[in-house]
Amino acid sequence: MSFFGFEETDLEKEKQQFLHGQLRSSDTDDLTVYTWGEESYDGLGDALEEGGDERNNETFGSTGTVGKDFDFSAATLSGSENLQPKPSQPYNDQPLKSYASRPSESQVTRPPAASHVSLESIWDDNSPFSLRMNGAGRTSSPSSGRVQSPSTLQQPIGHGMKQQPGTRTLQEIEAEMRAAAERTREHTLQRQLLQQQQHRREEEEYRRQQQQQQQEMELELLQRQRFLQQQQEQQLQLQRLQQQQILQQREQQHHRTPPPRMLPVSQSPRFLEHQRLLLLQQQQEQQELLRLQQLEEQLRIEDLERQMRAQQISHHGGSHLDHDRHPSGPTLADMEALQLLQQQQQREILRGSQSPTKHSAHDNGLYMQQPNIQLQQRLLSELANTEFLREMQGLSQADQEVLRAEAMRKILETEKMEEKRRRKAAKIAHMSRYNDIMTQSDKDFITRIQVSQLVTQDPYADDFYAQVYGAIMRSRMGLGSDDERVLKFGTSGGIGLGVPQRGANRRPNAMQRMQQQVERIVSNARRREEEKGLHSLHSLQGALGKTSGRSYKAAPRQLLQVDSNSSPTLSHAQTHGHISHQNDNSSGDDAAAEAAKLGREALGEQHNAETSDLVRKDPLSRKEVLVTLEALYDLVLQLEQLKRNQAPPEDEQATAEWQNEFKSVLDQTWVLLKVMVPLATSDPHPFISILSIAKGKKLLPRLTRHLDNQRMLTLLTLLIACFSQLDVIRNAPFLDNPEDTPDHSEVERQTQAFLSGVIQSILPIIAKGSLRLISGLLGLLLDRNDVVAIAKTRPGLALLTLLLTRVEVIKESLHNATNIEELPSPEDAEQWQLMFDHLFQLLTPHFPFLFPSSRTIDAAAGHIKPGMDAPDQPVWQFLAALALHAVTEQHQILVTLLRDKVLDNVVSAKKGWVADEEERHAKLANVDLFLHALGLDSSQIAM
Amino acid sequence: MLIFSVFKTLTDQQVIVELKNDLSITGVLKSVDQFLNIRLDNIKVLDEARHPHMMAVKNCFIRGSVVRYVQLPAEHVDTQLLEDATRREAQNPNKR
Hints:
Distance between the termini of chain B: 9 Å
Structural class of chain A: mainly alpha
Shape of chain A: elongated
Organism (chain B): Marasmius oreades
Helix content of chain A: 55-70%
GO molecular function (chain B): RNA binding
Largest sheet of chain B: 5 strands, antiparallel
Number of strands of chain A: 2
Oligomer: heterodimer
Main location (chain B): nucleus
InterPro entries (chain B): LSM_dom_sf, Sm, Sm_dom_euk/arc, U6_snRNA_Lsm2
Protein name (chain B): LSM complex subunit LSm2
């Protein structure tokens, strides 16, 4: 049934006809193309031009290779759900166009168009969404002048074939078929560009085709234009507002998604204008970049943007008007505007969550270039920062360098410090794991164990070394020895604390704690003792066997078990002592009185004793001497201990006991010292033997301290009588040997010990001795010894000098002494003079050889060794003392004999034959010692 | 007790402790107890090339039983007093 008088067609029926070959036979006579292979085939198929297919792609569009440069951003950005259904909308427009393109279609076929308009109006509100949708942004063809009827999508193939049997070309048929194929892809989202190109081509086909039906065409066009213009008017306002974004985005889009084959087809003026805008935009961007270089703050960027926007709006006013004036439908710009509007809105949504920098990038519309721009911005801001700093500091480059270096150094330092601090903290934290692992009671327990072993009955004796050493140190440092460094706990015991600590602050605390601990131990022990007594458990103790006692006691196990009482040497010494004791008994108590007598008399008496009951013995062996010495030391220590523990004077009984004890110990010592052994018992005398060892020499001062005057005199007498028996006198010639021999050093050591020990111990006796005593001692010395040999030794010279000096002192006191008792008798003086003359006479031939410098090997060779002034000094001193006592004739003898020696020294001193000033001074001082005694001076000696 | 007593006077002095493992350590004697355990401060091993592991050690506690010798500063030891103390110790056989 035909509606408008057209031939009625039924699609289904037609299809059936076609399939059964009826269609061809009934009404398509001229379509010979379908009849090849039959009798009626006219061979036209062979005449078909088969070549020239290479441009097919250009004509029909290629379905093979699809570019990768689709614009997915719009699709991805339109993520919000209210936009989802809209992409299908452009195709709703298509029916109108397809109907309009139909040649037989009259004006009456408007209802679908009207309905379309109404449909359109639904969407065509003022909302930007609808605008965007109507724009159908997917048709990106720039030749927008002819896009008003893009497709015939909804036109059935059969329709066209039936309506226009005579006028349709193969191209048309193909187009129809393609359109049909297109329809199947209608709702896929990926097709846009290809599709639209096809649409455009179809338009062109139809335009050619529609040249016959111009009127309908124009009518349709007018309608369409009117509609679109109206639409555009509505959009205009919004478009203006969004112009800035549109322009920017356009540029971006062109960079991003150039539609395929756009350029060859679209050399339209519109495109050129667009290019111009693009160029402008780029220039503006460059300007913006330039300005960006000077900016780093967001605010200023936005400021600029605002300015630019205003600029561009005014700038593009004209061009926009062109768009408006254009008679064709939605222009490309408009479509883009819509599309970009959507993007812009999308961005508006995102903006809230984006950083300011991104924000600004979006505002500038540099969406795709954003990373690039961001990088640039960062670089520029850094640059600006340094610039800013430079300006701020307003300093020269060098200063800046210095400052920078300083800053770097400081930073490094700080980092280092921080690192160090952190490491320290970590270490402390690591170690603090063990904090408080022992409780205070644990510590106290250990302290108790330790302290309990330190408690002794006699803290002083057990800590003897530290105690005495501390006392010595304190006295040396000039501190009072008031505080005892011993903790005493009642009478039971105590602890030696040793030397006081210097600068230890926690010491007193520790001390206090220890004291408390010890007191607790002591009280506990006492209580236990009492309990034992109470329960009489004592009898049962050890009944089950002994527990090993304090195996941890400090002292190590002794490997050598020597029974000291069964020692043969000691028994020997004891027997020896016993014998001497017997001897001592023989002489009896009068020995002390005997010693008190003057030397000569004593000597005489001892001579008598010698004749009576002298038991000649071998001298003490070295071993015996050592054993005796050790025994003496023990006794001396005992004496010293007794002295320290002297009972308080008010306790008479204790004092008497103490005195008895002290006396007995002292007597033992005296006996052991063997002073009272007869003089001729042995050579050397046992006492002298004891002094032959350095240890003995050192012992003497400690021992003589406790001896009374009588015993000291006896000792002195014995010493002087046996002076030449002393090792230091006998071995003195060794001192004349070169210094580096072992003998020399040994004798030197012994001599030093003798001078500091023995001479020091006899010094107080001689210093107090009367002239008679001195004369007696000198007489004894001259009588019993080879005084020349003695005088050639340092100890001998020291003794002689000592005696002479004492007499000199006595002589001095003669003149101003008031005490008659002190005055020596004339006989004593006469005696002394006799002794002195004798001494002088004995020494006269040997004066020059008293000097060690004259006795050396070098001196024998004729020249005096340098550096002998110190050894010579005692000799000069002795000679000076001698000169003081000498009379005039003796002076002359002295000067005559010593002339060479004196001159030697003076000349070498004055002529500078000396090593240094010190030596020169020593030489002159030595000479002057002697010359002054003669009343002369070295300066009087003329060269 | 004698040696303990002696060591008590040597605190804060520089000593050299020779151990039974041939290690010689010099350092400041900080404290000593009745077992002659020794605490040293500011130590330095004499032959550092042979004992590189000791280079970082700054102080140590030495058990008395591992000590072979202790070299004392001669100027801080009163030899005569030490002899006397030895004699005193020898006098009292019960104190061993």
